[in-house]
Design goal:
The chain contains seven helices and 13 strands. Strands 1, 2, 3, 4, 5 and 6 form a six-stranded mixed sheet that branches. The protein has a five-stranded antiparallel sheet with strand order 7-8-9-12-13, with helices on both faces. Strands 10-11 form a two-stranded antiparallel sheet.
Length: 327
């Protein structure tokens, strides 16, 4: 690329003064928007290594074979024309950020433009791409910086996930803020539930979105429920097996056997004592989250054989996320 050529991220700046220093490793993007732009131009310039090196180790792509991952990046680059990039929204808080953008792309003369809300996390002073979800419709044509209230997750291997949570004494305004942030975090990561230890608070508190199963057996997420100091009892003898995942153990899913029905007693965010009989997916999610405040993870509930089969994947996650080692 000639030095006077415009950057393929469509910033209207010369490549040398825009994304080139990032691609060459001379400088690190100071915020998630700059990383977003640098990744877009890296796709346009066929720089798959830049894409891989700026992807967070907790992202699902890391579970794929590195060769096939690299190949799919290259194929995408080769088959696309990168016609424009519009940043619609940028929110940043501490070491987390989201960037919503529209990438104008054409593939084989067909429009392949998409809008994505991407999540980023800063790790060792470097912004990394965590993942994204496709957004529908059109966002307004301007960049805004708003308050972002998503909390950093604790991942497999973090000692806090193995600790028993302390009881919550009082529902303070700080606790209410924490619950609001937990709900935003759960929603940002498309979770059905989130327990306080998963966001580095060792207390007996979790939130869920009441799940129901529609006719197609898909899980639909309903209203938020907040459980403070919950206790479980009257486990049904009937059990069932269904696949579970966990935001703290990215990319791992396994079928877990759990009782069909339980009774849960808890305090809600308004301070009211509640006793409920719950069943099916709601009971499953409550038991999964309750395990978290006991320091138990869903993988602990698998058979020794199943655990053995997951051993290397789990060690991999631990290494990647905590030791910062690539595969
Ligand atoms: Zn650029
Ligand atoms: Zn979990």
């Amino acid at each position: 690329m000639r030095e006077t050529e415009l950057c393929p991220c469509h910033s209207e700046k010369n490549y040398t003064e825009c994304c080139m220093p990032f691609h060459k490793g001379i400088a690190l993007p100071a915020n998630a928007v700059l990383l977003m732009r640098a990744r877009y131009s890296a796709f346009a310039l066929h720089l798959p290594d830049y894409i891989m090196n700026t992807t967070h180790p907790a992202s699902p792509q890391y579970m794929e074979n590195r060769f096939s991952w690299r190949y799919s990046i290259s194929t995408f680059s080769k088959n696309s024309i990168f016609q424009g990039l519009e940043i619609l929204d940028h929110k940043e808080k501490g070491r987390l950020a989201t960037v919503t953008f529209t990438a104008k792309i054409s593939q084989k003369n067909t429009d392949a433009t998409f809008t994505e809300k991407s999540r980023f996390e800063k790790k060792n002073e470097q912004w990394l791409y965590l993942g994204g979800q496709l957004e529908e419709g059109h966002a307004p044509n301007l960049a805004t910086i708003g308050q972002f209230r998503v909390l950093p997750l604790a991942y497999y291997g973090d000692a806090i996930l193995r600790r028993k949570g302390d009881p919550v004494d009082l529902i303070t305004s700080d606790l209410i803020t924490l619950v609001e942030e937990m709900i935003e975090t759960m929603d940002a990561f498309d979770g059905i539930g989130l327990a306080a230890p998963q966001i580095h608070h060792s207390i007996r508190l979790f939130v869920i979105r009441k799940p129901t199963e529609d006719r197609a057996k898909e899980i639909e997420l309903g209203p938020v429920k907040v459980f403070i100091n919950p206790t479980l009892s009257e486990y049904s003898e009937e059990t069932w097996k269904a696949p579970e995942g966990c935001l703290s153990i990215p990319t791992i899913r396994a079928a877990v056997e759990r009782p069909k029905e339980i009774t849960v007693e808890y305090t809600n965010l308004e301070g009211k004592q509640i006793r409920e009989r719950v069943s099916g997916w709601e009971a499953r999610v409550i038991m999964h989250e309750y395990d978290h405040i006991e320091g138990i993870l869903f993988i602990d509930r698998l058979s020794p054989k199943e655990q053995e089969a997951l051993h290397s994947s789990l060690e991999n996650i631990k290494q990647r996320i905590h030791d910062g080692k690539a595969l």
